[in-house]
Amino acid sequence: MSAASSLSCLRVALLHALGLTVAAGCPRPPLDDAGTATGTGTTTTTTTTNGSTTAPGTTTIPGDPTTGPLTTTSTTGTSTTIVTTSDSTGPVEPATTTTTTTSTTDDTTTTTSSSTTADTTTGPACVNLMDLGDEVMPADLLEIPGCEDYDTSQCYDYMQICAPLADGLESCDACAPDCLGSLPEVCPDFGFKLACGPFTIEGQCCHVIEYSWNCTDGRPFLVEGTARTAAAIDRRDWHADAGGPAPAFVAGLDAAARAELAALWTADALAEHASVASFARFSLQLLAHAAPPALVHEACAAQLDEVLHARLAFAIAGAYAGAPLGPGPLAVAGALEGPGDLAALVAAVVREGCVGETLAAAELDLAARTCDDPALAATLRRIAADEGRHAALAWRTVQWALSRGGPGLRRAVAEALTVQIAAPPPDRLEPALLRRHGRLPAAERIALAAQCMRSVVLPCARALLDDLAVPRPSAELRV
Fold it and tell me: H helices within 336-424, ranges in order?
């Protein structure tokens, strides 16, 4: 099955879940309780120049029956941003999708941008956070004086950033707690905060910055806009009995590759663990708004799915680490604070479910297709199927909410679809090795996110809003 056909099938499955008319021709059945149909991704060709693998150059993704082609392009630098916007004052109109991918060669640098509408506006230049300092591993952070007690998590990345000591100051203590200032030139793609510092290095005042990429897929547990996860600890009870790669498959890796893959899978496991809390809150929110029993039932079932996903991911992480791993305590204080109105619920469901879990289903399916270990590939397909059903639950929740609300809810949906997806940090392992072990390289994640937004998420949103604009008999939700 081609990449375009795979994403088309994901779109068909989601529209089927909404009870909307869809085009024929998809060879896969729609989503059901057994999870037999899943979202899929697309393969992206990487370019090797002078021995180093770079992001793909200009690539036109095959035309979609609903939306037409999407073009991704190359430019100099290290960051990639996908911005998808929609009209925030009414039904979703054809969106503006701008994709910028990076590539550098010895003698040529190409800068091109493309969009799906004529009046795309480019914002001012900004600096990638990762260009401002040096990466710090979580274990190394705890060895920095003044950072020994910081609660690190494998779900976050850490960067040491330094600034010259201000004139007239004799020590960093004089500018504490923040010697870096507001860093106004940093691109808004990264949510970050000061982790610890300041401390002095060679006459400069330095801080460690905590920022996140690994925990953005799927449904995060957001509290006041920040994704919360537990820290990984030594425990075996969160390991599923099956799902990890074969020991022989791991044995051929060197220690550095095993440690990196263990860190990546641990971050995924912590994110899946946090999703349990997110679905628990979602169930309470559905009850608060008198949602139909079918939606509450599916939300509770999804919560149990996430328990299994976390156990499977911890088992995989433990196989690479050579030691048992599990979650520590998860901070839940304040999780039920904030706006409780239906518009706030709809906006969160669109961002975390209709977008996040749709992208997760597509990414996991593509990762399964490129994975060399049969057991690991089967686990990825299993989780992808569940994420596809979770995405369908999110879309059905929005459909139900819109049937109760007015124009304000339609605006909330349109505004929530204005998303900015930050580029992941550069891969620390070769793309071919990542693919073999069920991980998509950064360039492929970027291209897949752009295509999935364009050919799945936005067409589903338009179909849903257009359908609700025409009175029709309400369909009973069944378990």
Answer: 342-349, 358-370, 374-404, 407-416
pLDDT of res. 260: 94
Q: What is the pLDDT of residue 395?
A: 96
Using alpha carbons, select from 213, 272, 266, 239 the residue that is nearest to residue 390. Answer: 272
Q: Look up residue 248 and give its two tokens.
A: 């022989």
Place of tokens 């956070």: 129
pLDDT in tens, 354-412: 999 999 999 999 999 999 999 999 999 999 999 999 999 999 999 999 998 777 888 88
Mean pLDDT (the chain) is: 75
- For Cα atoms 106, 110, 116, give the angle at the middle one, nearest 5 degrees: 155
**CA-CA distance, 328 to 296, in Å (whole number)?**
28
What residue type is assigned to position 352 of the chain?
E
Q: Which helix (H) or strand (E) holds 347?
A: helix 342-349
85: helix, coil or strand? strand
Q: In degrees rounded to 5, what are phi and psi of residue 53? A: -85, 130
Which amino acid would we find at residue 358? T
Query: Is the model's pTM score more than 0.90?
Result: no
Cα–Cα distance measured from residue 148 to residue 120, given in angstroms and rounded to the nearest whole number: 47
Each residue of 148-162: pLDDT tens digit?
888 765 456 688 998
CB 328 within 8 Å of CB 231: yes
CA 340 to CA 42: how far, in whole Å? 38
Cα separation of 445 and 214, whole Å? 12
CA atoms of 114 and 74, how far apart (whole Å): 10
Q: Where in the chain is the domain with CATH 1.20.1260?
A: 3-46+231-468
What's the sign of the alpha-carbon dihedral 248, 253, 257, 258?
Answer: positive
What's the CATH code, domain 3-46+231-468? 1.20.1260
Q: Residue 222: helix, strand or coil by DSSP?
A: strand
The string of pLDDT tens digits covering residues 266-318 is 999 999 999 999 999 999 999 999 999 999 999 999 999 999 999 999 999 99
Which pLDDT belongs to residue 41? 34
Which strand (E) or helix (H) includes residue 410?
helix 407-416
C-beta of residue 220 within 8 angstroms of C-beta of residue 344? no
For the residues of 24-44, what is the DSSP string, one character each?
Answer: S--SSPPP-TT--S-------
Contact present, 461 and 355 (Cβ < 8 Å): no
